[in-house]
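Rotation project, supervised by the postdoc (A.L.). Task for the rotation student: set up a whole-complex structure prediction and record inputs and outputs verbatim in this book. Inputs entered:
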Amino acid sequence: MEAATEVRGSSKASASEEGPRNANVKKFLKKSQNRLLIGGKWVPAKSGKTFDAVDPTTEDVLASCAEGDKADVDEAVKHARKAFAEGAWSKTGPHERARYLRKWADLVEQHTAELAELESLNNGMPIALAKQFIAVTVESIHHFAGFASKIYGETVPSDPTMFNFTLRDPVGVCGAIVPWNAPILMSAWKLAPAMACGNTVILKPAEQTPLTALYLADLMLEAGIPEGVASVITGYGPGAGSSIAEHMDIDKVAFTGSTEVGKKILQASLGNLKRVSLELGGKSPNIVFPDADMDMAVPTSMAAFSMLTGQICVAGTRLFVQQNVKDEFVDNLTKFTSTIKVGNPLDPETTMGPLASKEQYDRVKGYLEVGKSEGAKPAVGGNMMDRKGFFVQPTIFDGVKNDMRIAREEIFGPVVSILPFKDENDVVFQGNDTSYGLGAAVWTKDVGRAHRVARSLKAGTVWVNTYYAFDPAMPFGGYKQSGIGRECGAHWYEHYTETKAVFMKL
Ligand code: NAP
Ligand code: MG
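Outputs recorded:
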């Protein structure tokens, strides 16, 4: 095995301007100290406590955010219940709700520059990628808004003396708990569907990335969404998050995050049997057959494990390559990976920013050690970067076996395991040999094989000859320990409504 190739990216601090650049972002950061959106008003946390939102590129504090906890959640629930049961939202029809959501979506679109810079500053994602996420966010809000007036009940064939039909009632007050990897999109995927159905909602963003959720909240107020309909409580998981999960007057919780915390959410829901939908972790197989279009398969497989510094739940981190083409494939993948430009995510030429937090930096560092001690060989990368900020080298581990920890556990960093396979049966077995089932991809020109493998893989999303294709009109979610339920698509509202059967004697 050759020595690991170096990955470009300066080991010294970049000469480019660091920290906030946009004047509106600077203004927003100043006003974002210690404030929660509750009942349509900005208020400080009742405890007066704050925590720091950090820039992972510079390790500087961007803002001291309000540390909401149980008392603040209780207050938000009171407002949410009132808005739902007797206040403005209960009197709002589906077309009007759709108009509010569309207005909000338009404002998000108009504020793309500010939101993208803020997301990039707080999460570390390259600015161009942040803009793409915002475009998908806008499209997603429109998707949910369009459904507001199309969530039909059914008239049911009945005895001539009866008229039987179903109604789709909003479930009530919803809680939403989201992670730090794609904060704007994840927040929108919870807020918009809840509101489209006529529910009210309380959002808790991740402690690492609270800022864009607060910006989205400003835009909701500007869109005129009535008070109490949506609240945003920044704070910690144990505290604000667990208070939402346990709350006896919250009817439903939608969660995106780790499988470990997802299980806690499910346990906490037992008190009032609240409805729970979960989008959890993954360890997705990306499968390359020798007849694949390698000009597409190689660079796309690189993006599959390294985009967003590998912090994507559907990242293709188990890369199965048929054994007769494996070495050549790894050589080519290594060449491409060596061109990744690591640096300040606000610089347009940067293609990989830092990991989102110190916690994530330590976690990925730990897994690089685990991989080496298990006997895997870095074909490229393998180390953290010696510079300010939470930077890591994109890493390809060759010589991996499917029972190693680096092939089984979600690393959530730009680290891929290369796994050779013999034939179709072998790779379907190995691909499914995981506790997760979120994403999968197959690369082949053989249409029959593409269909067979796509059907055999136990994953919520399967890509054929592509990766990361996304459309809010397609369902998203996981098999097995990758979650419960589906977001987006055509049936998402199952999780935000209750079905009522009405029997009428004529
Ligand atoms: P996490 O630790 O599970 O946190 C997710 C959210 O849950 C955060 O807001 C967190 O608050 C909160 N939380 C933590 N403990 C809680 C508790 N006891 N009760 C209620 N809420 C609690 O996940 P993460 O580290 O932020 O994100 C990475 C993980 O998310 C990865 O495993 C990734 O695969 C998964 N993910 C899945 C998807 C998907 O769509 N399937 C999408 C993105 C990410 P704090 O911020 O205070 O920790
Ligand atoms: Mg966490």
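Student's summary: The longest strand covers residues 162-170.
Supervisor addendum: Residues 177-181, 204, 206-207, 236-238, 241-242, 245, 256-258, 261, 264-265, 279-282, 313, 410, 412, 438, 478, 483 surround NAP (ligand 1) (CB under 6 Å).
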